[in-house]
Design brief:
The chain is an alpha/beta fold and 290 residues long. It has one domain: Vaccinia Virus protein VP39 (Rossmann fold). It is 34% helix and 20% strand. The chain is built from nine helices and nine strands. A nine-stranded mixed β-sheet has the order 1-2-9-8-3-4-6-5-7, sandwiched between helices. α3 packs across α4 and α7 crosses α8. It binds S-adenosylmethionine (SAM). S-adenosylmethionine binds next to β9.
Length: 290
Amino acid sequence: MLLNQKIIKEEENKFLNDSNNSLLFELINNKFENTEQIKLKHKKTLLLNADVLEENLFDKEYFDLIVTSPPYNVDIQYNSHKDDLTYEEYLEFSEAWMRNCLRWTKQQGRFCLNIPLDKNKGGQKSVGADLTALAQKVGWNYHSTIIWNEGNISRRTAWGSWLSAAAPYVIAPVELIVVLFKGEWKKTTGSKISDISKDDFMKWTNGLWTFNGESKKRIGHPAPFPIELPYRCIKLFSYVDDLVLDPFAGSGTTLIAANNTNRYSIGLEIDIKYCELAKNRIINETEMLF
Ligand SMILES: C[S@@+](CC[C@H](N)C(=O)[O-])C[C@H]1O[C@@H](n2cnc3c(N)ncnc32)[C@H](O)[C@@H]1O
């Protein structure tokens, strides 16, 4: 057996022997046993090759926290997803997946939604405001918005009208992390074990986060976010052993952050090649906590 396969097998056994894994067990045994959709069972993580639009994917309220960055509809060349919908189609897609996620989230569950502030490719659109309104329309409650300062002005491709008031473009080098919740904000369920330091708590409850974006080339995915983003959301908004979902798992960043902070996690990814990429990253980048 090749070394990599041996590690995968050992980790799969550990995963199955972890009796705390009851929710994931239930999912695997009742629903996903023997399905081709399971691409990885590793430590506390399950990776599924699945479509978030499939509303019956989960039949219960499983998740404590969702951290995700959906496609932005800015014509990124994903393998399996069409990223140049009309704006109306994009809003319909967004409404459908956010509705599913609400259905699959526990009462008191939280939702950290990483989206752009606005969009200027193919017409100016208030994406951040529109998706925040749609999330509330489907039943999510609004809590707050974190501004992620990427410190990156590489998106500046056009000035509109140079040194002229005729039609200048204004672009903010920031993205949003909209924080929403189901039912009530105060969390009374779960292990009640928080593992955030005083320093981090004080820094991160200031809603202006500054850190760099991730390199597409380094990760091998067209739109990865930096691990710092899900790491902060997970430490701030969930307890140890909570179950985290990323419905647009991409290269698996959220799942790595969840594993390395001792949370369970499930990732959905529609593209089989990105599932392979996520699988390799998860195996190589999760710390040995057990
Ligand atoms: C912005 S990327 C997420 C990147 C991820 N945060 C990371 O760090 O790698 C969006 C991902 O959603 C996937 N995707 C698009 N439509 C999907 C769907 N309907 N269900 C599941 N995944 C989907 C794309 O293939 C892409 O990998």
